[in-house]
From TrEMBL, chain A:
This is Peptide/nickel transport system permease protein. The chain crosses the membrane at residues 34-55, 127-148, 155-180, 200-219, 257-283, 303-326. PANTHER family: DIPEPTIDE TRANSPORT SYSTEM PERMEASE PROTEIN DPPB-RELATED, PEPTIDE ABC TRANSPORTER PERMEASE PROTEIN. It is found in: Cell membrane. Keywords: Cell membrane, Membrane, Transmembrane, Transmembrane helix, Transport. Signal peptide: none annotated. Its main location: membrane. It comes from Conexibacter arvalis. Residues 121-322 form the ABC transmembrane type-1 domain. The lineage of its organism: Bacteria, Bacillati, Actinomycetota, Thermoleophilia, Solirubrobacterales.
UniProtKB/TrEMBL annotation, chain B:
It comes from the Bacteria. Pfam families: BPD_transp_1, OppC_N. One of its GO terms (cellular component) is plasma membrane. One of its GO terms (biological process) is transmembrane transport. Coiled coil: none annotated. Belongs to the binding-protein-dependent transport system permease family. It is found in: Cell membrane. Keywords: Cell membrane, Membrane, Transmembrane, Transmembrane helix, Transport. This is Peptide/nickel transport system permease protein. InterPro entries: BP-dependent_transpt_permease (IPR050366), MetI-like (IPR000515), MetI-like_sf (IPR035906), OppC_N (IPR025966).
Length: 341, 291
């Protein structure tokens, strides 16, 4: 972006009046975008923090349950979790900690939340990344195949994706587990595995479970977008000019279809964040999802706060990233945004 | 369930032809029939379920399909078919409440935002953006962490999370109608705003709201099933499709029957509803273009 602004400012060209203002408008639009993003993230953190702070049942009641505890111990615990501070101060303290990677102390494990979360997050990110690669390969592949081969192939793909698109991830995961892990024994039933290869093998069935629904969504959009381009006049023109079909498909059909494909793939990537929670729990992978479910059941509030915040932030960031990518892919949107804002 | 009857009226009333009957394609008719059938099963559960869904028969666990138990029995010897039939109740009523509540909150918000614009629109828009940042399931998990597991916190949290889904579509529909000559005419003549909303605005945005609510029903069904599956939703022995899919121990022992059947029912219900929703949305856009 900055490069653009500078380039637009420097040439003492004909459009001197127009270029700088446009560059500035674009920088301004980006700044507003980022400002909105920060505001959204802060607001989400307030919601996450407050919802659990206002929850009935304080941390000390979770810790001690029904047992009688000396007042001094109770005081110490309240001090440790800063429970006697006013709520806004508690929030600021928490936020300051979070920004430094300190999510407080887990009530259930009596360890810093961050030590527990680190490993789990790595597993979740690996799983989501694995699934995203599969989703893009299978989704775009199937969609393109259906678009370019009308008739039987197209019909088959449409039928398959039609069923898959109505299959929720947790149902797919359960069925895959039951068939490929239990019945056939091709894949491990539980656990995250050790070492990268073993880990990937353990993550394969979960990743496939995440892929089924999302990939069929991507396939359907890819098919529709490519069909629309194939029927376009620019494609006819390109063919009439004698360009190689390969070139036409790649540069004129696929390139233009990328905008809707990216949008839907981005939505799926954001959806994966919740999807991993479920799959993680089913296959007991020890990722953030399993940790979250356990923490909720144990009323481990600092843990729940931390994981919810991480997941919401990831969700918001992915969505913003897609929005930006969208502008990169479609220059028309960039111009429109610059002109409007 | 009863919403089906409700859905019919505004649709027919607002078709541009005036007296045009409800036109549905063959696929949509099949989908509607499937939804109606499932709703009927839920309503008539006490009558048609062959067994008490909670009656255990520990001497007859994991039995295969037989004349006595058409779909076999589960890990406690309970009749799977009866549990599926009773499970239709929470599985369908839950999303219905979610969608009705989200619509009841989202539509007035969207009407206000689209009608007055300006500051109202900005405030509503920002609030919806914030809600949109929370995946519904995550909001429900937060609610469960606050108030404990159960259908009520899950349904309320999802209803809140679904408000933007309804409100955004409604707002843009309102914007589309806002500038129409007949609205301007009504304003000039001095028709009270409330009356314009009820007589002109609502009937015109109703078809797209209903289409969107139908699509949302499918999402809500999945989300609630996921929550029950995770153990946050329906509690105790009450059968629920989502909960029935979570039969981990039986599955590991090689008895996935109840999980498979419950999963199939979820898939069937969701495909029927989303087919219907997509069909209604498409038709609305088509009608809009014709007019």
């Amino acid at each position: 972006m900055t490069v653009n602004v500078e380039r637009n400012l420097s040439p003492p060209g004909v459009d001197l009046g127009r270029f700088p203002s446009r560059g500035r408008a674009r920088a301004l639009a980006l700044a507003r975008h980022l400002g909105g993003l920060v505001a959204l993230l802060l607001a989400s953190s307030v919601v996450v923090f407050l919802s659990l702070q206002l929850a009935p049942g304080s941390p000390e009641s979770v810790l001690f349950g029904q047992q009688q505890v000396p007042d001094a111990v109770r005081e110490a615990v309240r001090a440790r979790y800063h429970l006697d501070d006013p709520v806004p101060l508690q929030y600021l303290n928490w936020l300051a900690g979070v920004l430094q990677g300190d999510f407080g102390v887990s009530i259930a494990y009596q360890q810093p939340v961050s030590t527990r979360i680190g490993d789990a997050a790595a597993t979740t990110v690996l799983l989501a990344g694995y699934a995203l690669v599969l989703i893009l390969l299978v989704g775009v592949g199937l969609g393109a195949l259906a678009a370019l081969r009308p008739g039987r192939v197209d019909g088959l793909v449409t039928l398959l994706t039609g069923v898959a698109v109505a299959t929720p991830t947790f149902v797919a995961a359960t069925l895959l587990l039951s068939y490929f892990a239990v019945e056939l024994g091709w894949f491990p039933v539980y656990g995250p595995g050790t070492g990268l290869l073993d880990r990937l093998w353990h993550l394969t069935l979960p990743a496939v479970a995440l892929t089924i629904w999302a990939a069929s969504f991507v396939a359907r959009v890819t098919r529709a977008a490519m069909r629309e381009q194939l029927a376009g006049e620019h494609v006819e023109t390109a063919r009439a000019r004698g360009l190689a079909e390969r070139h036409v498909i790649r540069r004129h059909v696929f390139r233009n279809a990328l905008v809707p494909i990216t949008t839907v793939a981005g939505l799926q990537a954001a959806g994966l964040i919740v999807g991993t929670v479920v799959v993680d729990q089913i296959f007991q992978l020890g990722g953030l999802g399993q940790l979250l479910v356990t923490a909720v059941n144990q009323s481990d509030f600092p843990m729940v706060q931390a994981i919810c915040l991480l997941l919401v932030c990831a969700f918001v960031l992915v969505n913003t990233g897609v929005d930006l990518l969208y502008r990169v892919l479609d220059p028309r949107l960039r111009a429109a945004a610059g002109a409007r804002r | 369930m009863n919403a089906l009857a409700l859905r019919r009226r505004p649709l027919a009333a607002t078709s541009d032809g005036g007296a045009a009957p409800l036109r549905l394609g063959t696929g949509a008719k099949v989908a509607l029939a499937v939804v109606a059938l499932l709703a009927l099963v839920a309503l008539l559960a006490p009558v048609i379920a062959p067994y008490d869904p909670d009656k255990q028969d520990l001497l007859n666990i994991h039995a295969g399909p037989s004349a006595d138990h058409l779909l076999g029995t589960d890990q406690l010897g309970r009749d799977i078919l009866s549990r599926l039939i009773w499970g239709a109740r929470p599985s369908l009523a839950g999303p219905l409440v979610v969608v009705l509540a989200a619509t009841a909150v989202g539509v007035p918000l969207a009407l206000a935002a689209g009608w007055w614009g300006g500051a109202v629109d900005t405030v509503v828009g920002r609030a919806l953006d914030l809600l949109f940042a929370f995946p519904g399931i995550l909001l429900a998990v937060l609610a469960v962490a606050m108030f404990g597991s159960g259908m009520v916190p899950c349904v309320i949290a999802l209803a809140i999370a679904f408000v933007p889904l309804i409100a955004r579509v409604t707002r843009s529909a309102v914007l589309g109608v806002r500038g129409a000559p007949y609205i301007a005419a009504a304003e000039v003549v001095g028709v009270p705003t409330a009356r314009i909303w009820l007589r002109h605005l609502l009937p015109n945005v109703a078809p797209i709201v209903i289409a969107q609510a139908t699509v949302a029903f499918g999402y809500a069904l999945i989300d609630l099933a996921v929550l029950s599956f995770l153990g946050f939703g329906v509690q105790g022995t009450t059968p629920d499709w989502g909960m029935m899919v979570n039969a981990q121990q039986s599955i590991v022992q090689g008895h996935p029957d109840q999980a498979v059947w419950a999963g199939v029912l979820i898939v069937v219900a969701v495909s029927a509803v989303s087919y219907l929703g997509t069909h209604l949305t498409d038709r609305h856009h088509r009608d809009g273009r014709d007019a």
